[in-house]
Amino acid sequence: DSGVTQTPKHLITATGQRVTLRCSPRSGDLSVYWYQQSLDQGLQFLIQYYNGEERAKGNILERFSAQQFPDLHSELNLSSLELGDSALYFCASSAKSTSGDEQFFGPGTRLTVL
Amino acid sequence: TQLLEQSPQFLSIQEGENLTVYCNSSSVFSSLQWYRQEPGEGPVLLVTVVTGGEVKKLKRLTFQFGDARKDSSLHITAAQPGDTGLYLCAGARGSQGNLIFGKGTKLSVKP
Question: Would you say B25 and B4 are in contact if contact means Cβ atoms under 8 Å apart?
Fold first, then answer.
């Protein structure tokens, strides 16, 4: 158990819909990262928050957004869903925000868009 | 173009054999992490290397970071069925914390 929790574990929805994925970091960790894992692309970095503020952006679509709340949990919002958004979404947390800082991953949310 | 290339993509061996997995790039990384992932679960951190030429050992696993910090290898001695899984290398560039992942090596160790 990494100490990072994600809900829900599975999510099945239809194209055009909007969903929210939730992540609680390890106790004491200030950074939260979101990654998407698909069969063809592997694990891709989406976005990072550090202590409530956006710190870095990766391959995140405009239809996707995220935020980190004062209690440090984070939510990833996916809207206007398309079939290609079906993937595993992982959240990871680390103590700081610097290179070499170890990241610990949650169990993931499997999103299926029908 | 994948920034971090892992090889081989697939590896199927018998229990007791040794193996090496490679992670290569033309870019310099300030740190590199190795993870193991099982189906339907999140990646589990195995090791972090930050210094060029660094070698770290974790029981039967030996990790090496290249002198130029562009490549890394993972060597497993006397593989066991419990080593089966997807091995991922991931690098951080500059001062950024976010990771760039390779596509992984899928290892199967048969009893």
Answer: yes
